């Protein structure tokens, strides 16, 4: 690449004010895939640095929430749990929910949090929220491992549909990154988002079958209910791992479609506004 | 010019500067203001990303800049703070987009606007080399191939697996520069990054960059306030003034012009009401340099005193303004700072709303000859609400020979205080 002669060649980089619709440059993303890898690695390495309990934190949060929910919703309010012990019924949902809540919180705050990077160096910005969504998977798998231990303890075994778990995880990642990208992009300009996210997560949690089963929702509303993408994920996990209800394929299809729309919308919106990040951050 | 590697055509960039803070005088006003704030805030935030011409709270950080750079050229970009140099580099490195105009770059670009961008203090040197390399656009294999070279250049072999938070600042900067210096690209954009680090390392970095340009034929745009290194290192200079290109010529001509024309020094800065720097309690309206006769000047003799006059407006009753002046040399090294808390009979008393003027006298016979910059840092009561006006004014100190006496040589260092000497004979009592 020495002494390149740019005579009569197309510009390598053409800088001008962008107009109209911005499309995703997949070739460039591919070039920067190592950056995604190193950012994910950084997030994982740094997360529990200088903590006493380290990776145990990944379990403590969902596990203790499960104990609280079991006491209040399982024992006191006697909310049904699809015929399995309430603790595992709830924990199976908390595993996915904790991931989702942390992923949208971290990716939603990621652009503002990495303002130093954004104002000093160019790279496809989309990598930042993505790195946070992906690095959260570490905690998810640790918590998931505890779920397996609980299944052994309660003698509950998965159905053959357990093969759909990877698909459910992808669904979960799509929903998280879709929401995360929208929030991150909005947050760059409107810092209200930082205060909105904890709120949103709480409301969203009660709109998701975590402390109660989806079977409590009247049949006719259930497909509307599945418009919440996490509904499909959590009911899916329960069905295939804990054999609570038959595989809810209709709900999962709706949740999948909504996640897909959310994901594309997030990607799209992020792409339209990312060029302003350095100026407003 | 068709054989340029960089073509910049009428590049302009507009920024919104923050709207003026409102001051509430009554409780009722304050309540109404708080309640209507969301509507106002939303409008202000929404405007941030819009282009607006001739609005009072917008500025053109860069205006109609056009130039071409041939492959292998090393161009020094110089000018005052706020002249548009960094904005230009930010646009060329695609961090921010221009408001109008365009630029074409015929080659891979890497930019070094800051040393160690993305370094994480908890990660080790090794991990940071990879992370930083990837952030700067290198592939993993590329970094691995250059890893030994990078470590060698930085001279941190023994600390490779130590978290960088345990590094000395010198080691940190060396490592950070080493990564950036090993980027493979045809165009390198460098902003005042060498202001950090010790002189020996700065020379090493400049040497490395010279190497990059002469041996590998790479093109470099180099922003610096350090005129000797610009002269030494660049072929061509581009001088920016208030967002526009003022001069584009052979490097020594441009640097001479910059240093001589007085455009390199600012004896006074005055801000218009909507644009005044400060905090919600008081705003600076002007900073002026004067000599002992009270004349505004940006050139003093080192045997004369220099007076820095600050005028400010206190926006409400009971404000206790606190501020300090920091003097630094042409390379950005801090020489000394002085706080207004030394003014015992005035400091610490709450001031009523109004306009004030405060002066600080820099003794005669204190500074060495050279260029100096004055930075103002302001606070409100208890050193809160800090704001900083970096290099607000600057001046030249000339050696008029009064202190020098019969000594023919030069003095080193930024200061040359006149100290008392005393000699006596000790072998006879």
Which terms summarize this structure?
heterodimer; A: 281 residues; mainly alpha; 13 helices; globular; disordered N terminus; B: 429 residues; alpha/beta; Rossmann fold; Coagulation Factor XIII, Chain A, domain 1; 6-stranded mixed beta sheet; 5-stranded mixed beta sheet; 18 strands
Describe the structure.
The complex is a heterodimer of chains A (281) and B (429). Chain A has 281 residues and is an all-alpha fold. Chain A has one domain (26-280). Helices cover 67% and strands 1% of the residues of chain A. In chain A, helix 4 runs antiparallel to helix 7 (127-154). The radius of gyration of chain A is 21 Å and the shape is globular. The two termini of chain A are 36 Å apart. In chain B, 24% of the residues lie in helices and 32% in strands. Chain B has eight helices and 18 strands. Chain B starts with 5 loop residues before the first strand and ends in a 31-residue tail after the last strand. Chain B is an alpha/beta fold and 429 residues long. In chain B, helix 3 crosses helix 5 and helix 4 (140-154) crosses helix 5 (169-181). The longest helix of chain B has 21 residues, at 27-47. Chain B has a six-stranded mixed β-sheet with strand order 5-6-7-3-8-9, sandwiched between helices. In chain B, strands 12-18-17-14-15 form a five-stranded mixed β-sheet, with no helix packed on it. Chain B has helices spanning 27-47, 85-92, 125-135, 140-154, 169-181, 199-216, 227-233, 251-260; strands spanning 6-16, 58-69, 74-79, 100-105, 109-112, 187-191, 219-223, 236-241, 244-250, 268-270, 282-291, 299-301, 306-314, 321-329, 334-339, 354-362, 370-380, 384-398. The interface between A and B is large, with 46 and 53 residues. Strand 1 of chain A pairs antiparallel with strand 4 of chain B.
